[in-house]
Amino acid sequence: MEQRKRHEEIDPAVRTCFRQDVTVGAVETGAFADAVRVSVFPLAAGSTEPDNLDNDNLPYLCLPADRPVPVDGEGGLVLVAVEGKDRLMAESIAELLDPRSVVIGLMHVTWMPRTVDSPLGSGGLNNPDTGELLLYHGAREALVVTAHALREAGFDVSTHLREDRDPAVPLTETILQQQPDLVVLGLGRHGAGIARRVLAEARVPMLFVKAR
Fold first, then answer.
1. HSE-up of residue 44 (Cα within 13 Å, Cβ side)
2. Model confidence over 30-70: pLDDT tens digits?
3. Do residues 77 and 178 touch, judged by C-beta distance below 8 A?
4. Alpha-carbon gap, residue 31 to 35, rounded angstroms
5. How far apart are CA 6 and CA 3, in angstroms?
């Protein structure tokens, strides 16, 4: 009954983002051996603390109980926060999400010492080319390499470079502006700590995946 209840709590817009062979719901370890399992951990209203979030529980879908009700049941935009070290991000996403149902916005947040002038404006760069990323450590790996791998897997991908000492700030701003159906993070710099801060302001479904 509890498993069924949690399954029914998943918004259709969120469920549509996932491949049909992916089990989305609270499942027993070892069950559904032929499917990739996603465990659902609803957050109580006002909570910003995903329980039991660690590498052993990935993939991990976090659903705030007080998230806004979606307008319709169609999957759409998935915002992915990626780092240069997140070499498994594309593979994890390809195993879980359906390229026929989602458009991916791939976002990397960088920071340059103030001793170096950055060409980035407050809005960052949308769909930057390789040359524009050379100044930023890890940006090419995060955006160009990951985007290529996702496109090879059939996904429609746009890339976005933002600059801020605190990645939670532009990530939250982008979520509030674009209202994605799902946000995907790895457990590196864009992991649990930043997720708690983002969830405090943007109540959005978050999927944590293996990234390294």
1. 3
2. 555 556 778 888 888 888 888 778 888 889 998 888 887 65
3. yes
4. 9
5. 5
| Structural domains for the chain | 2-209 (3.40.50.620)
Max Cα distance, the chain (Å): 59
Look at the block and give the residue holding tokens 């109580």. Answer: 44
Please provide the DSSP assignment of 15-39 as one string: HTTB-TTSEES---TT-STTS-EEE
Residue in 87, 202, 204 with CA at minimum distance from that of residue 146: 87
Q: Which amino acid is at 77?
A: L
| Residue appearing with tokens 């027993």 | 28
d(CA 27, CA 5): 12
> ∠ at Cα 146 (144, 148), nearest 5°?
65
pTM as predicted: 0.85
